[in-house]
Specification:
The two termini are about 65 Å apart. Helices cover about 60% and strands about 15% of the residues. The protein has helices at about 40-50, 55-60, 115-125, 135-165, 175-205, 205-210, 215-280, 295-315; strands at about 1-10, 10-15, 30-35, 70, 80-90, 90-105, 105-110. It has 2 domains: about 1-250, 2-Layer Sandwich (Beta Polymerase, domain 2), CATH 3.30.460; about 250-315, Methane Monooxygenase Hydroxylase, Chain G, domain 1 (Up-down Bundle), CATH 1.20.58. Helix 7 (about 215-280) runs antiparallel to helix 8 (about 295-315). The protein has about 325 residues and is α+β, with helices and mostly antiparallel strands.
Length: about 325
């Protein structure tokens, strides 16, 4: 899907289908934004013919394994490839690439799905309005990505707090699966924010961004937001490692308690078996001919078992 916007007086307006086939429908707009989401083969070919950009600039965003990078050769369009987070399920997050292609007077964003933060950027520009400089729009997109990481890590932190409370009272398999999902998400986030760092630095080094005071302010905010995301991810990862150790220790402790109780019960039940086996031999034994021998043995077994139970209970084995 391809949608084109033109920025008039700080606000985006969606271009009509006819005007989308021309690079410059008119000269009144501050700049243009082409949003590409899951393009098919026909749309991909049309984009390549319309903008004359390298094919890998677009296809890179469709490869889920692509890593963030920057690319520009001579006077060719600049590519800034970011990683952004997506949510599959509760506690299950992944990352996807986003291509930001900067041309004179135009920005193209390409992604394999429709990122929620891009909808917020669009809504802001279509609502209260935004900066009229193209560089500021690119910085706003990058800042929205970092902000999205921060929001998702906060959600993971809330889940970690819930797991921390549950793990103290139960060792449910569901908790273990949640911990695995959260750890995988944090690993993906950590790699993505680290790989986004060089791209953010490349924005700082780009001449087109350093000439705008507003763009520089946005880039500084972007650095702070990305640093905050990385710190939060590192803290959450450390907590998860501690929780994993705690969970493993809790399982081992509960297993030791169960084995201790079962062993004590086995010893208690062994006493009647030994006594019954001794008086079951075919030889003369004390009280063998006594009429109340059976009840005497029952009382003896009960007394010894009771004594063992009291002893084990006092030692904390039961």
């Amino acid at each position: 899907m391809i949608r084109r916007y033109a920025l008039y007086d700080g606000k985006f307006q969606v271009l009509t289908q006819d005007s989308q086939t021309h690079i410059r429908p008119d000269d009144a707009a501050s700049f243009y934004w082409t949003q590409v989401t899951r393009p098919d083969d026909g749309e991909l070919q049309a984009l390549l013919e319309l903008y004359n950009v390298p094919e890998d600039y677009i296809t890179a965003a469709l490869d889920v394994s692509e890593v963030p990078r920057t690319e520009q050769i001579d006077d060719s369009p600049a590519l800034f490839l970011f990683s952004y987070p997506i949510k599959h399920d509760r506690g299950k997050f992944a990352t996807r690439p986003l291509s930001v292609i900067v041309l004179p007077g135009e920005v193209i964003t390409v992604s394999s799905d429709a990122p929620a933060f891009m909808d917020r950027v669009e809504a802001t520009y279509r609502g209260i309005g935004g900066d009229e400089e193209l560089q500021n729009f690119v910085a706003n997109v990058a800042w929205a990505i970092c902000s999205h990481f921060v929001e998702d890590v906060r959600e993971l932190n809330r889940m970690i707090d819930g797991i921390e409370k549950e793990v103290r009272i139960a060792d449910k398999p569901k908790i273990f699966m949640q911990m695995i999902d959260i750890q995988k998400s944090l690993i993906r986030f950590d790699m993505a924010t680290q790989e986004n760092d060089p791209v953010i630095e490349a924005l700082f080094q780009s001449e087109s961004f350093t000439t705008s005071t507003r763009a520089l302010d946005l880039l500084r905010d972007l650095q702070i937001e990305n640093y905050q995301a990385r710190c939060m991810i590192e803290e959450a990862s450390t907590i998860m490692e501690s929780l994993s150790d705690l969970y493993s220790n809790l399982i081992a402790f509960n297993l030791n308690v169960a084995m201790k109780v079962l062993t004590s019960i086995t010893i208690v039940l062994t006493v009647p078996t030994i006594i019954g086996g001794l008086w079951g031999m075919n030889v003369d034994l004390p009280i063998d001919h006594t009429p109340y021998a059976f009840w005497i043995l029952i009382l003896l077994c009960a007394a010894v078992s009771y004594g063992l139970i009291k002893y084990f209970n006092r030692k904390g084995y039961l």
